[in-house]
Amino acid sequence: MLTRRLFLEMAGAAATLRASFAAVPDEGLRAIAARRGILYGCAAATYELKDSTFAAALAQEAAILSAEYEMKRAAIEPVRGSYDFSGGDGLLAFARAHGMSFRGHTLVWHHSNPPWLEDALQSADAEAFLTNYIAAVAGHYEGRVTSWDVVNEVLQPQDGRADGLRNSFWLKRFGPEYIDLAFHTARSAAPHAMLVYNDWGCELGAPDNDRFRAATLKFLDDALARGVPIHALGMQGHLSAFGTQVDQKKLSAFLEAVRRMGLKILVTEHDVDDSGGPLDVAVRDRAVADASRRFLDVMLDNPATIAVLTWGLSDRFIDPPGWRDRLAGRYPRMLPLDSDCARKPMWRAMAKAFA
Question: Is 118 a catalytic residue?
């Protein structure tokens, strides 16, 4: 028989137990991933750090931080020869204050460049506009950036070249040698940083992805044979909840080929596009979580994978694609935390993948 005294004793014990759990903060992804020897982190921007709710969530969840856009050339060198490191320095200060590592993104890309750059590359001393920039930026952060995306997205098999390279303005001006030059310059300026080749296109299971994987393996194999100091492959990990999905068998075979080259692997920009799905948030969240889990299960199964970063942490800072979406109430739900910085099914899927 449950007496009043026994009931009160049980209620008191339950309250004490609840209080003890409340005193221990929920673990973030950084702690869960760390037990597996993986760094979890994300990209962020300094304006986001002014949001106290987001900043607190970022400090709890992330063990490594990357700049979303403030370390791209358009932001760092808007005026020729004049460098602005304030954005990157602000993110670095936050990272160091919260015990995080810091990644550099990115030194050479065909997008996010200042408008004066392409004209400047027509001059006789064009090479200096490549090497001097890399030396200045990587040198500024030497010893404080653990890894650099040295060149970003140089492959584009659809352009029809036998080597699979993108027909960018860098390639047109310098030929394929600009890639080697970029990595060697970064090695001299940042001798303690891991140097990463970063791209997307290897993740999914379509025929175009098959061609991209083959082009990537050839590119990496040839570069390493030439002595290019590439230490790791960065796979961006942009997925679709309602489009082409990951083929786990193909992805696993590709990762193993990369590992056999002696390279490390990082997931650098993971998110899951939920466009094309229904208005029902629960359905979209479940599809996003499932896509993330299928991808990360394979990525984390390979011992060469050392880090997973999402391209942002919270949906709070993602704008809807257009006014029709806003009217319909269709706001993107692509990241681990929702717009209130609450954990979503994607967060739980990632936690289970890390665990």
Answer: no
